Amino acid sequence: MIEVANNGVGRVKVLLVYVGASAGSSVANANFSVIGLDQGNILAPNARQPFTLNFAPSANGQLLGYLQVAYIAEQGGCSLDSTNPATQCASAIAPVSTLEGTGTPPQILLTYNNGQGDITLFPSGTSRLDFGSVSTSATSSITFTLANQTSAPLATPSVSINSGVFSSSAFSLDTSALPATLPANSSATFKVTFAPGQTVLTTATLIVGSNSYGIEGTGIVVTDIDALAISYVDSTAVRTEPQAATPISFGQLVPGTAGRASLQFTVTNPATSFNPVTLSTLSVSGAAFTLSGAPSLPVTIQPSASITFMVTFSAAASGTFTGSLAIGTRIFNLTGLAVVSPVPSISLQLSQQPLTSGQQVNLTVEAASSAMTTQLGELTMQFTPSVANVQDDPAVLFLATSSRKLQLTLASGSRNATYEGQSALGFQTGTTAGTITFTVTFPNTPPVTQSYTITPAVIYLSSSQAVRQSPNLVVTINGFDNTYTAGSLSFTFFDLNGAPLSAKAMAVDASSDFHNYFFTNDPAGGSFGLQASFPVNGDITQIGSVSVTLSNSAGQTSTKATFQ
């Protein structure tokens, strides 16, 4: 660890700390690097900042570097903040130290043969090993040799390829010839193949042990079919451009179920192409893979035109399945995994059946046996109204989240799935007739779906109130109608002794009002609030109570209230 320090009385702006190839040179020395320094930082007087100086030799023998710093210092009245050329501070480059390191032959040497002789590769080089320009219908391979240059056996370093953020690499790796241990003064080989699926420059990093080596290759058009741009999208609409070196993965599913994974492929002849391309072959191999929606063959794709088709993966038994997709002479490997579900058979139980509107009910998700491992899943609910022209009821939801989705945990050794530790999963049934459907999903497990019907019912009245507000009698009723068909109302008034004040009830047809309320202004399902006012001629205190009957398509319901 080294520090850069400001020992002066003015501020210093550190523009760059670097190792030059020679004294005073602005050309960086690739054998040395400065890490962890905030370049461009301003140091106050007596302030300091640490950094790390690394030595990574690219050759054997003694290697020199020259540590230098480019800076701007406040001195002689200048200011770092000035925009006036007369008072701005000038920059300078100061030599700091001469660096020396010795590159020694590695214990394990990586080489390849370029057809003219063996070439030694040095890690972290500035240039990439080029696999050349290769047709998208062809491949280019390089065989690398790992040599143990010591007199004792060494563990063979791990070998991998890092393609960065890309899910599909144009490079594939074959390490089948590498042993676990390299005997003394012996060697072994592995192969890297460049198989492009797209006409672009592709880069990657070959990693051997703790060392990295840049590699690259370019896909080019040699024949007309090489120009075709091939892509696919999955069920989430994520678009991927496959490379021929990397198998196209269909993910994993549970065998012997209706589960399947499908990818939609698009083959485009770019507008920049001069020639139409005719495909006489478009096929899929592999017992678990099928092709559908393909055009009749042969098919000719004009410039700017495209074709689409589907490839589907399904399996009757568990295991890893492979296949291939042939688009003309271009071949893409396919892979899919079918796994046995780690979750025992799931069932759903309700604390109340049958379901009715306006209730809060508990649901439990129960496994047939104790789970062997902890599994994370999801419980969702869907509501389908049976009332014409009604799309939903927002009151149908889980109480814990005020939504229609819960994350579930089925703990190891348990039979009940929980949400935040609770196995009783409360939900509201809303105020609309219809069907609630619950779906439980766990990874690698067929979804479990169960539906429950809420039947049409007579109007439910949650409260009623009768108040004397001279000269009016005011009746207020709250409730819900899960059929949305409330219509006729009747009111019968009684004196203080309970005798009816008229031989016939007062009838009101409120069908139009209810319809407008439910279908125009009401966002809360079948819930409603009703208030009726009746003017009275005479002594209002002699009216003791009122009986109200409401009707809908399911029947009648009544309530009685005493005037206050």
Description:
The chain is mostly beta strands. It folds into 5 domains: 102 residues, Sandwich (Immunoglobulin-like); 113 residues, Immunoglobulin-like, CATH 2.60.40.10; 115 residues, Sandwich (Immunoglobulin-like), CATH 2.60.40.10; 109 residues, Immunoglobulin-like (Sandwich), CATH 2.60.40.1930; 103 residues, Immunoglobulin-like (Sandwich). It has 1 helix and 44 strands. A hairpin with a 2-residue loop joins strand 17 and strand 18. The longest helix has 11 residues. The protein is elongated and about 120 Å long. The model has no long low-confidence stretch (mean pLDDT 92).
In short:
The chain is mainly beta and 564 residues long. The protein is 2% helix and 51% strand. A 5-stranded antiparallel beta sheet has the order 9-8-11-16-14, with no helix packed on it.
Task: Summarize the topology.
Layout: E1 2-5, E2 12-20, E3 32-35, E4 42-43, E5 48-55, E6 61-73, E7 91-103, E8 108-113, E9 118-120, E10 129-135, E11 140-148, E12 154-155, E13 159-162, E14 171-174, E15 181-182, E16 187-194, E17 201-208, E18 211-220, E19 229-233, E20 239-240, E21 248-253, E22 261-268, E23 277-279, E24 282-285, E25 289-292, E26 299-301, E27 306-313, E28 319-327, E29 330-338, E30 346-350, E31 360-367, E32 375-385, E33 396-398, E34 405-410, E35 425-429, E36 434-441, E37 448-454, E38 460-469, E39 472-480, E40 488-495, E41 506-509, H1 511-521, E42 527-535, E43 543-552, E44 555-562
Parallel strand pairs: 10-18, 21-29
Antiparallel strand pairs: 1-5, 2-4, 2-6, 3-5, 6-7, 8-9, 8-11, 11-16, 12-15, 13-17, 14-16, 17-18, 19-20, 19-22, 22-27, 23-26, 24-28, 25-27, 28-29, 30-31, 31-35, 32-34, 32-36, 33-35, 36-37, 38-39, 39-42, 40-41, 40-43, 43-44
